[in-house]
Design a protein that fits this description.
The relative contact order is 0.15. The chain is built from 21 helices and no strands. With about 425 residues, the protein is mostly helical. Helix 9 crosses helix 16.
Length: about 425
């Protein structure tokens, strides 16, 4: 009964045009009333969903991005990117993909990745003549690669969820994710280029020559050096990925005020206001999404779907396809960590029974969970990108097909070609 109330109320609110955040919150309240539980539970889940240490990176990375934008750092980075790949149609979008991938490898979090890179690249892509939906889709999909990068904390969560079911080492899972990460990046680059060609996005002249590229790189180097500081600090153990966000803010202030001397008081206040607004929107969505995900877990939706799936077919390729579809659907309603912890004990034994290696299943699960982060109603990565880009989720979803297709292709390769995930771990065993 309560699950029916949750599904119907949420669907009805969306049909009526209620914003996604309020539709999630109101459907959660309706469900809690139908269950006869105290309404305060919804707000407790909301607050609990926002009280996560790693979420501290969001306001800092957003603020660092705004400082880079208003302080001139981002403009120099764009000039360097344009000098390097601007002569290719959609070159800025492709450089965005590579930048998000690199930063995702540092932070290990799609949410932090889109907060940092999106705050810089989305406004600049719009300024250069790219449509807002394209800028958001390129950034949000490229940020998902961070989920299977070596610094991803979700890999640790999976190894904990898989304990007792199979022996999966953290090192093995990290090695298993490297080749799929490259495949995801190549697919994102292909999608960004294909859409740019179809839409006829601008080409910024001919290749200017390597001397101009070096000059542009030198001008952008102080801004780009933030990546070196963050990476060096994390690898040396000086600070964590979350703490690196505050280092990024300090370095952005230093470069814009002392080195470039381009950050005015007016622009500093604008950066503060924009960062506060974006952070407020994002944390509200995260908190409400946590309450919604709680009810999905409470009423055992993943367990019921897992039992149903085993009754449909005994063909391995069909089973793997159904697992992918179900993980994707559940990932759209649950937070990534919750999906891993709930779905691993359900689906991994089934996948192993039909011949899938636990490491291969782990990477497949992480990619599905990451794709769910970019899908409503609980697509936190997409919410962040849309908030930064000033565009609605509905507008972005209308043109998301090529990017979904690229990531789906990568996911199918990981699912049906075991060598992509198992070759490197077996080679370095």
């Amino acid at each position: 009964m309560e699950l029916t109330v949750l599904a119907l109320s949420f669907t009805l609110l969306l049909i009526l045009g209620v914003p996604v955040a309020f539709a999630i919150g109101l459907s959660s309240v309706a469900t809690i009333i139908a269950a006869g539980l105290p309404v305060a539970m919804v707000f407790q889940k909301m607050v609990g969903g926002m009280q996560v240490f790693s979420f501290l990176a969001i306001p800092f990375f957003v603020f660092a991005g705004e400082l880079m934008l208003y302080g001139g750092i981002a403009d120099r980075i764009v000039r360097f990117a344009n000098s390097l790949v601007g002569h290719v149609r959609g070159g800025l979008g492709m450089s965005n993909v590579i930048g998000c991938t690199i930063f995702g490898g540092v932070a290990g979090s799609p949410l932090a990745d889109v907060s940092a890179m999106g705050s810089v690249m989305i406004p600049l892509m719009k300024k250069e003549g790219y449509d807002a939906d394209y800028a958001v889709n390129v950034t949000t999909h490229a940020a998902l690669v961070g989920a299977i990068m070596p610094t991803s904390h979700n890999m640790i969560i999976f190894t904990l969820a898989a304990s007792g079911l199979a022996s999966v080492s953290v090192l093995g899972l990290i090695l298993a994710g490297l080749v799929p990460a490259i495949i995801l990046t190549l697919c994102n680059l292909g999608a960004a280029y294909w859409v740019a060609v179809r839409r006829g996005y601008p080409i910024h002249g001919n290749f200017p020559g390597w001397l101009e590229v070096l000059k542009a790189f030198g001008a952008a180097l102080p801004g780009l050096f933030v990546v070196v500081i963050i990476l060096g600090g994390i690898l040396s153990g000086a600070f964590t990925a979350t703490e690196s966000a505050s280092i990024a803010v300090a370095w952005a202030l230093f470069v814009t005020v002392v080195v470039y001397r381009t950050l005015t008081v007016h622009n500093f206040l604008k950066a503060c206001a924009k960062a506060c607004k974006t952070t407020g929107v994002v944390l509200l969505l995260i908190g409400i999404s946590n309450a919604f995900g709680y009810f999905m877990a409470l009423y055992e939706v993943p367990q019921m779907t897992g039992e149903l799936m085993q009754k449909i077919s005994s063909e391995p390729w069909v089973i793997f396809l159904m697992i992918n579809v179900l993980l994707f659907i559940l990932g759209t309603f649950l937070d990534m960590a919750a999906t891993i912890l709930i779905c691993t004990p359900i689906f991994m034994p089934i996948a192993m029974h039909f011949g899938m290696d636990p490491m291969q299943f782990g990477i497949m699960l992480l990619i599905n969970c990451a794709l769910g982060l970019n899908t409503p109603p609980v697509g936190t990565v997409q919410f962040v990108g849309c908030a930064i880009g000033g565009i609605s989720v509905g507008q972005v979803m209308r043109t998301i097909a090529p990017f979904y297709g690229a990531l789906t292709l990568a996911m199918l390769l990981v699912t049906y070609v075991p060598q992509f995930t198992l070759w490197l771990p077996h080679l370095l065993k």
